[in-house]
Amino acid sequence: MSDEYKKFQELKIDTSYIGLAREKNPKYFCTPIGATIIGWDNGIHYAFINGFDEMVFAVNPDTCCDYYVYPLANNFYDFLGLILATKNTNILQQIIQWDKQQYLDIITSREEVEYASKAEVIEALDAIHSIGVLPIESPFEYVKKIQSEFQYSRIVYSDEFYEITGKEKLI
Description:
Largest sheet: 4 strands, antiparallel
Protein backbone atom coordinates (compact mmCIF):
# COMPACT_ATOMS: atom_id res chain seq x y z
CA MET A 1 0.00 0.00 0.00
CA SER A 2 1.14 3.51 -0.75
CA ASP A 3 2.28 5.99 1.89
CA GLU A 4 -0.71 8.19 1.03
CA TYR A 5 -3.11 5.32 1.66
CA LYS A 6 -1.50 4.62 5.04
CA LYS A 7 -1.68 8.31 5.97
CA PHE A 8 -5.31 8.43 4.83
CA GLN A 9 -6.18 5.43 6.99
CA GLU A 10 -4.72 7.22 10.00
CA LEU A 11 -6.92 10.30 9.56
CA LYS A 12 -9.41 10.56 12.39
CA ILE A 13 -12.24 12.14 10.39
CA ASP A 14 -15.49 11.04 8.81
CA THR A 15 -14.80 10.68 5.09
CA SER A 16 -18.32 9.50 4.27
CA TYR A 17 -19.24 13.10 3.38
CA ILE A 18 -16.90 12.92 0.40
CA GLY A 19 -18.14 9.49 -0.65
CA LEU A 20 -15.42 7.41 0.91
CA ALA A 21 -17.06 5.81 3.94
CA ARG A 22 -14.98 3.31 5.85
CA GLU A 23 -17.55 0.55 6.12
CA LYS A 24 -17.21 -3.20 6.38
CA ASN A 25 -19.77 -4.32 3.81
CA PRO A 26 -19.79 -7.59 1.92
CA LYS A 27 -18.38 -7.67 -1.57
CA TYR A 28 -20.81 -7.77 -4.50
CA PHE A 29 -21.16 -10.11 -7.46
CA CYS A 30 -19.23 -7.58 -9.52
CA THR A 31 -16.38 -7.05 -7.06
CA PRO A 32 -13.35 -8.40 -8.93
CA ILE A 33 -11.28 -11.26 -7.62
CA GLY A 34 -8.34 -9.79 -5.69
CA ALA A 35 -10.06 -6.49 -4.84
CA THR A 36 -9.21 -4.62 -1.64
CA ILE A 37 -12.05 -2.24 -0.85
CA ILE A 38 -10.89 1.18 0.32
CA GLY A 39 -14.20 3.02 0.66
CA TRP A 40 -17.94 3.05 0.02
CA ASP A 41 -20.53 5.48 -1.30
CA ASN A 42 -24.13 4.21 -1.34
CA GLY A 43 -23.31 0.75 -2.67
CA ILE A 44 -20.57 1.84 -5.01
CA HIS A 45 -17.19 0.94 -3.65
CA TYR A 46 -13.65 1.91 -4.48
CA ALA A 47 -10.87 -0.61 -4.58
CA PHE A 48 -7.37 -1.62 -5.47
CA ILE A 49 -7.21 -4.82 -7.54
CA ASN A 50 -4.29 -7.26 -7.43
CA GLY A 51 -2.25 -7.04 -10.60
CA PHE A 52 -2.97 -3.36 -11.27
CA ASP A 53 -0.37 -1.77 -8.96
CA GLU A 54 -1.85 1.23 -7.12
CA MET A 55 -4.66 1.93 -9.61
CA VAL A 56 -7.98 2.84 -7.97
CA PHE A 57 -11.24 1.49 -9.40
CA ALA A 58 -14.94 2.18 -8.95
CA VAL A 59 -17.07 -0.96 -8.50
CA ASN A 60 -20.66 -0.17 -9.43
CA PRO A 61 -23.26 -2.95 -9.04
CA ASP A 62 -25.90 -0.75 -10.65
CA THR A 63 -23.74 0.18 -13.59
CA CYS A 64 -24.43 3.28 -15.64
CA CYS A 65 -22.30 2.15 -18.58
CA ASP A 66 -20.85 -0.95 -20.20
CA TYR A 67 -18.66 -1.75 -17.19
CA TYR A 68 -19.28 -2.70 -13.59
CA VAL A 69 -15.67 -1.89 -12.72
CA TYR A 70 -13.69 0.99 -14.17
CA PRO A 71 -10.49 2.85 -13.30
CA LEU A 72 -10.53 6.29 -11.76
CA ALA A 73 -6.89 7.00 -10.90
CA ASN A 74 -3.42 5.63 -11.54
CA ASN A 75 -2.68 5.65 -7.80
CA PHE A 76 -4.15 6.59 -4.45
CA TYR A 77 -2.45 10.00 -4.33
CA ASP A 78 -4.10 10.94 -7.63
CA PHE A 79 -7.41 9.52 -6.42
CA LEU A 80 -7.29 11.82 -3.41
CA GLY A 81 -6.25 14.70 -5.70
CA LEU A 82 -9.30 14.00 -7.86
CA ILE A 83 -11.51 14.07 -4.76
CA LEU A 84 -9.99 17.42 -3.76
CA ALA A 85 -10.74 18.76 -7.23
CA THR A 86 -14.32 17.48 -7.47
CA LYS A 87 -15.17 17.54 -3.74
CA ASN A 88 -16.50 13.94 -3.69
CA THR A 89 -16.36 10.50 -5.27
CA ASN A 90 -19.89 10.68 -6.68
CA ILE A 91 -18.80 13.01 -9.46
CA LEU A 92 -15.72 10.90 -10.19
CA GLN A 93 -17.58 7.64 -10.60
CA GLN A 94 -20.03 9.23 -13.04
CA ILE A 95 -17.47 10.76 -15.41
CA ILE A 96 -17.45 7.51 -17.38
CA GLN A 97 -20.95 8.32 -18.67
CA TRP A 98 -20.60 12.07 -19.19
CA ASP A 99 -19.27 14.41 -21.83
CA LYS A 100 -17.40 17.55 -20.78
CA GLN A 101 -20.50 19.77 -20.74
CA GLN A 102 -22.43 17.36 -18.52
CA TYR A 103 -19.49 17.27 -16.14
CA LEU A 104 -19.27 21.08 -16.04
CA ASP A 105 -23.02 21.39 -15.52
CA ILE A 106 -22.94 19.03 -12.54
CA ILE A 107 -19.78 20.29 -10.88
CA THR A 108 -21.02 23.89 -11.03
CA SER A 109 -24.63 23.09 -10.12
CA ARG A 110 -26.11 24.84 -7.12
CA GLU A 111 -26.65 21.51 -5.34
CA GLU A 112 -23.01 20.45 -5.72
CA VAL A 113 -21.66 23.85 -4.70
CA GLU A 114 -23.92 23.93 -1.62
CA TYR A 115 -23.00 20.38 -0.66
CA ALA A 116 -19.26 21.10 -1.03
CA SER A 117 -19.62 24.04 1.36
CA LYS A 118 -20.83 21.85 4.24
CA ALA A 119 -18.51 21.87 7.25
CA GLU A 120 -18.13 18.07 7.16
CA VAL A 121 -17.05 18.11 3.52
CA ILE A 122 -14.60 20.93 4.11
CA GLU A 123 -13.16 19.13 7.15
CA ALA A 124 -12.59 15.92 5.15
CA LEU A 125 -11.04 17.78 2.21
CA ASP A 126 -8.79 19.82 4.54
CA ALA A 127 -7.61 16.60 6.20
CA ILE A 128 -6.66 15.13 2.81
CA HIS A 129 -4.84 18.33 1.93
CA SER A 130 -3.03 18.17 5.30
CA ILE A 131 -1.29 14.90 4.31
CA GLY A 132 0.31 16.65 1.34
CA VAL A 133 -2.18 15.93 -1.43
CA LEU A 134 -2.87 18.57 -4.07
CA PRO A 135 -5.95 18.76 -6.32
CA ILE A 136 -5.68 17.38 -9.87
CA GLU A 137 -5.96 20.32 -12.26
CA SER A 138 -8.12 18.73 -14.96
CA PRO A 139 -10.05 15.91 -13.30
CA PHE A 140 -12.43 15.23 -16.19
CA GLU A 141 -9.61 14.85 -18.71
CA TYR A 142 -7.52 12.78 -16.29
CA VAL A 143 -10.30 10.25 -15.67
CA LYS A 144 -11.39 10.07 -19.32
CA LYS A 145 -7.81 9.41 -20.43
CA ILE A 146 -7.21 6.60 -17.97
CA GLN A 147 -10.56 5.01 -18.86
CA SER A 148 -9.98 5.23 -22.61
CA GLU A 149 -6.56 3.54 -22.33
CA PHE A 150 -7.57 0.79 -19.91
CA GLN A 151 -7.89 -2.85 -20.99
CA TYR A 152 -11.12 -3.85 -19.25
CA SER A 153 -10.72 -7.50 -20.28
CA ARG A 154 -7.85 -7.83 -17.78
CA ILE A 155 -10.23 -7.65 -14.80
CA VAL A 156 -10.95 -11.11 -13.36
CA TYR A 157 -14.43 -11.79 -11.96
CA SER A 158 -15.96 -14.68 -10.05
CA ASP A 159 -18.20 -17.26 -11.68
CA GLU A 160 -21.11 -15.55 -9.92
CA PHE A 161 -20.49 -12.41 -11.99
CA TYR A 162 -20.86 -14.31 -15.26
CA GLU A 163 -23.94 -16.18 -14.00
CA ILE A 164 -25.71 -12.97 -12.94
CA THR A 165 -24.76 -10.79 -15.91
CA GLY A 166 -24.88 -13.43 -18.63
CA LYS A 167 -21.59 -12.10 -19.94
CA GLU A 168 -19.20 -14.53 -21.56
CA LYS A 169 -16.08 -15.47 -19.63
CA LEU A 170 -13.07 -14.52 -21.78
CA ILE A 171 -10.61 -17.05 -20.39
